[in-house]
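Order emerges. For instance:

***
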Amino acid sequence: MVERRKIECWLTDMDGVLVHEGHALPGAAEVLKQWKEEGLRYLVLTNNSMYTPRDLAARLKATGLDIPSEAIWTSALATANFLHSQKPKGSAFVLGEAGLTTAMHEIGYIMTDVNPDYVVLGESRNFNFDSLTKAIRLINNGARFIATNPDATGPSADGVLPATGSVAALITKATGREPYIVGKPNPMMFRSAMNKINAHSETTGMIGDRMDTDIVAGIEAGLHTVLVLTGIADDAEINKYPFRPNEILNSIGDLVN
């Protein structure tokens, strides 16, 4: 792996690295300022497909982090990028929010429930029985099943919420069809992000707070991996896995020179 001082581009997770529960984490603003001053290219990655980059940029700005929307790469954008490469100008039945539907419209996809090429599942708080039934029937009739991310649960102030992975499991149980998942830990999400900023794996670093998504995908993509301990990872969590990041830091602020 490349030494940190030779890194020209950074990919960084958002939740647990830059922000936590609506607040910027210590050192996040300073790292972003340093990258800007040094002319380093970077992208903020998130498996959350609910929001558009513009929405997320506004949310981050409210925490004090000034990140342009073009520096945000979501699993919705990665999914749309993948579908465009597979079948340009195709059609899809989409279960998801504005972040996903906007990304699909931007690649010229038609949203339809009549013989679509794909059923695309993303994050949502508005699933209903009719839409799930329609998705199951379309997959049974030959539509290919795609999911933006594998996360089974998501956080909230009141506790965990069912997320894309849980709903995908329901559809899989009913159809016998596993989705192709584009988001982390699929290294394809990292490769599409690197393509966006013209980065190369030999000189790119990945910062994350999860061993099972950020770090393993970074390793598989050939990146310099940095685990921060401001999210879910601790010594017990790290020791569950047979692989290790290149660096373990208390927070992203430890990257400030």
In short: The two ends are 20 Å apart (CA to CA). Residues 75-86 form the longest helix (12 residues). The chain has a mean pLDDT of 94. The domain at 4-47+184-255 is CATH 3.40.50.1000 (Rossmann fold).
